[in-house]
Write a structure and sequence with these properties.
189 residues, alpha+beta, Glucose Permease (Domain IIA), two-stranded antiparallel sheet, globular, binds zinc ion
Length: 189
């Protein structure tokens, strides 16, 4: 009887301590997937400024993504292998791309792009350049940045855990790449 009471007490204590655990230390599935992805902006000269939930429109809206600031024209890459399911231009997002991977349950959203370098329906590889950082749409008056969002089903989720530990791809601008391949072609002649 005493033993049973002790076991019951142990069970209660562990339940209580579990519910008091800091939610930030809990492992999110996105966090482990993060290491397998590529950071959406190439190069090391980018930084995340406005995070998920930041106030928008004087507090009437919440920011449904993260803003990754970088110089205009910085290459933007596919975070995973997948298909460009939508290529669009909208008043808010400006030049946008939606990337869906058959291996992931979520969809990535890229907004305010200066250039869209892929077509709708195109298959892309992780790390492939798909556009460049800009300030199109409602970002016209702000410094250039990539607005990066993630949808799960029909709702937006915080994209930060998805990219927090994602390795950054080396920045090779599409123009420089073209020049380099021309050079190597010339050399091989
Ligand atoms: Zn944003």
């Amino acid at each position: 009887m005493k033993k049973q009471a002790l076991l019951l007490l142990l069970a209660v204590v562990s339940l209580v301590s579990m519910s008091f655990r800091d939610p930030h230390t809990r492992k999110s599935p996105a966090r482990s997937v993060s290491r397998t992805l590529a950071f959406p902006v190439a190069g090391t000269k980018s930084h995340i400024r406005d995070k998920w939930g930041a106030s928008r429109g004087g507090g009437i809206r919440r920011h449904k993504g993260i803003d990754i600031h970088a110089r205009k024209g910085t290459p933007v890459v596919a975070v995973c292998d997948g298909v460009i399911v939508t290529r669009d231009h909208t008043p808010i997002g400006g030049n946008t791309l939606w990337l869906k991977s058959p291996n992931q349950s979520w969809t990535a959203y890229y907004a305010h792009l200066d250039k869209q370098l892929v077509r709708e329906g195109q298959h892309v590889k992780k790390g492939q350049v798909i556009g460049t950082v800009g300030n199109t749409g409602n970002a016209r008056t702000t410094p250039s940045h990539l607005h990066f969002g993630v949808t799960q089903g029909h709702s937006w989720v915080n994209p930060l855990p998805y990219v927090k530990y994602a390795p950054k791809v080396a920045a090779v601008s599409p123009a420089a790449k073209k020049k380099a391949s021309k050079k190597s072609r010339r050399r091989s002649r």
